[in-house]
Amino acid sequence: MMQFIRSRAGKFVVIPIILAFIGWMVFEIGRDVTGAGGGRPGEVGTVNGTPISQDAYANAIQSLTDQARQNGQEISAEVQQQIEEQAWNQLVAGILIRQELGRRGIRVTDQEVVWAARNVPHPNLSQQEIFLTNGQFDINKYREFLSGSTVTQEMYLGLEAFYRDWLPREKLARQLAAGRYVSDAELWRAYRDETETATVDYVSLDLARLAPRSPAVTDAEVRRYYDEHRDEFERGRGARLNVAIIPLTTTEADRQATVQRAREIRAQIAGGADFAELAREHSADPSSAVNGGELGTFRRGQMVPAFDSAAFSLPLNQVSEPVVTEYGAHLVQVTARTEDQATARHILLPFEKTEEEQARLDAKLDSLQSLAETRGLQTAARLTGASYRPGIQITDEAPFIPGAGSAMEALNWAQDEWLDPAREPKVKPVSDSFENEQALYVVELESYHGRGRTSLAEARGQIQAQLALEKRRATARAEGEKLLAAIRGGQTLEQAAAARGLTVTRTPPFTRVRPNQELGQANAAVGAAFGTPIGRVSQVVETAAGLFLVRPVQRTDAVRAEFDKQKESLRARVDQQLRQGVFDAWLDAVRESAKIRDNRERLRQRQQQGLT
Length: 612
Description:
Helix content: 40-55%
Structural class: alpha+beta
Oligomer: single chain
């Protein structure tokens, strides 16, 4: 929840969370992928003959799910699917890495483990505020933490397990990157990319004005595109649904009920109840609730406006009246404050439906489902006042229903219904209700397709739209060339653009590598911004965002003296990026060539059929 309350970066992670992280390392690193020693029979797959047990897969999923929940993330159906894929990929990568470590005979000594534990903290720990001094990581604070009484024997074992796993991988990365040296010239180029800025005037060659008509696309062009881009038409699962939606919008009555609950808790505190205990019991901010509501120290402007205003105006140690933000009602207590910083704790009560409103919605949903089974979903929606949306397409790539939000559960249901041997082909199945933060909804299944390649007939509309866009861009490019010829003939950029109904826009300063809202990032337009002489108009450049003419008006150069001061720290960072890039490329290549068998879908179907 902290990431929602705070409007910018700046996390305060307390000791319990750090200890939980170390505890997770014990579990995560120490897991036996092959499941040796017992557990459920069967395997979810193999990697070059090495099995991945069902236990290992289930444990990996549970570990990642626990992490997500600890971070305050709701585990929706699509989040669960992402977790399952992440767990599978981690297990596969782990086996491939261990196989390579064994082939190369890479090992680590006890002395290397001890040195790394004291001098190379895990990145997730090195960024925590309790280890920072003046915003910089303080190795002495970290070492004091390691030698303190809060670290148990189990946690030491967890750290040891982490470094015994990480150090061989680091050695492997260094071996893979051996001989790849980052020269001073390359460092200077990287520094320039990060620090030099350009400000430009640009004209967007607007297709709506320069190529307004949709050009004809022939069947032969469609067929040729399909044949030449077959890989683009591989698709995941998809379903066509009719949907009846009951929105779960927050009413003013819901808001007032939440505010009243906050007032009641405030009265308990005024009567002597412990703020911290009530925060642990009631607060919906998981990252602070575990520590009695403590938010740590934050700067003015870091919180959302209403919270920030309260934090910098409340008398010290006084519990506020309910502070209402988009996330709910907060009780805030400020324990210390300077002009620009405050230390505070809070209790967050999210807006929730009243019991009366929830009962009304439940009754409406029961009526919707009952009527849908006998009279069809469309009639049921009309009679109950639910919103009805026919012909909604959802896929693995876009599992969303307009007005209802997340719909992965509905897609999973559609797959099960469509593949059910007992399904009557002429009957449209109607689901039980689904629920997410946005709505209650019921779906009726029109059709379903599994993973595979989209047929030419299905892809025709998409291909026609793509080819029409390409033709319109070609027309706009030709108009851009005419505009450029007029400029070369003596007109200004402004004059040539105005003659065609286009406008000249100026960007704020941007670098080569940071995202640029107007022109994009690391593309031809950015290249023109830094490569075209000041005051001169570039050739027509094309990016994913569109077609542009670019005229640089100002650039700042990198300062060599500043580079010299930062060169060694920059070298360390670039070296690490280089090793990581080489390692990732190696892992992609070895995975591509590995013999990987994925039994997950088959096992899931067997489980549904009661065969396992």
